[in-house]
Design a protein that fits this description.
Elements: H1 25-38, H2 46-55, H3 61-69, H4 72-77, E1 82-84, H5 108-118, E2 123-128, H6 136-148, E3 153-158, H7 164-167, H8 187-194, H9 210-224, H10 228-245, E4 252-254, E5 264-265, H11 275-279, H12 281-284, E6 286-287
Parallel strand pairs: 2-3
Antiparallel strand pairs: 1-4, 5-6
């Protein structure tokens, strides 16, 4: 009988005895650390990954690895200065951030299933320029590489920086494009700027679905609600509606990084919504 060889195209192989022959935990932990290092994800704390693996023994290792590879865009594009988004615009800096929504993780099989179900085929153009945000083109290419694993072909179109906000963003002829939004101090301000049906900056054109109609109704109710708990419930539901039905892909929240002279003094806490203390440095800073 001739020997048969199985060719496997992979970058790493985990040999797992599951404790039958020998306690293999320390081997697996080292493999986790080596995998993180090999993908240049040094910003991920290895012990966090090990703890996650050990605490979620019933989840397949491939999915557990993807839990941390989802951070690739934060680590490679933002150099670690940011946080993973969850497909809605309200970050943890906001008072009514919905922390109950499950964190979306990369799942190529699920993406492939839904893409096939959509009936779409062919290239999906994605316009990007670093005018949208620093690293936007690289982020688009990372997204295209991930989508390819699900059988989707994203064509990254590198647009000129000049005129990007006039000629590309919010332009029906261009469609899907990279952009950024500066944070807003309140949920209502963020929703009213980019998501309600009465703003011309509604760049995803999310206006007519049942969820969009409900969203617009709830935003108005929350605006007038004086009971804090009821207002929280309304804003939580608004975020869920965008998360489930909106047209926004919000993979990251970036941190503003600045360096000031020692001659400049500031309060201990500064605003996180825009550069230079929420663009109010001239009002809030002073000479030391």
């Amino acid at each position: 009988m001739k020997k048969k060889f199985l060719e496997i195209n992979c970058k790493k192989i985990f040999f797992d005895f599951d404790g039958v022959i020998v306690d293999s935990n320390h081997f697996k932990e080292k493999a986790i650390i080596d995998s993180i290092k090999s993908f240049n994800l040094e910003k991920i704390i290895s012990q966090d990954a090990i703890s996650y693996f050990n605490e979620n023994a019933g989840i397949g290792r491939e999915k557990k690895l993807l839990k941390f590879f989802d951070k690739e865009i934060v680590d490679k594009i933002l150099l670690g200065y940011g946080a993973i988004g969850n497909d809605h615009p309200i970050s943890t800096a906001n008072r009514y951030h919905n922390s109950d929504l499950p964190q979306r993780e990369f799942d190529a099989d699920k993406a492939a299933y839904h893409y096939k179900k959509s009936g779409h085929s062919g290239k999906i153009p994605l316009s990007a320029a670093d005018a949208a945000f620093a690293g936007a083109v690289d982020a688009a290419q990372l997204m295209a590489a991930s989508a390819a694993e699900a059988g989707m072909e994203i064509e990254v179109i590198r647009e000129p920086k000049d005129g990007y906000w006039s000629n590309v963003w919010n332009n029906d002829a261009k469609g899907w494009c990279a952009c950024y939004w500066g944070g807003r101090p309140t949920e209502d301000w963020m929703f009213s700027a980019a998501y309600t049906d009465d703003t011309e900056w509604n760049d995803t054109a999310w206006k007519t679905t049942d969820s969009a109609v409900k969203f617009n109704k709830l935003v108005k109710e929350a605006r007038a609600e004086l009971n804090d708990n009821k207002r929280r419930e309304l804003y939580y539901e608004c975020q869920r509606l965008i998360y489930d039905d909106g047209g926004t892909i919000c993979p990251i929240f970036n941190s503003y990084v600045s360096a000031n002279s020692k001659a400049i003094a500031t309060d201990e806490n500064i605003a996180a919504n825009w550069d230079s203390d929420g663009a109010k440095c001239v009002e809030r800073w002073w000479f030391a």
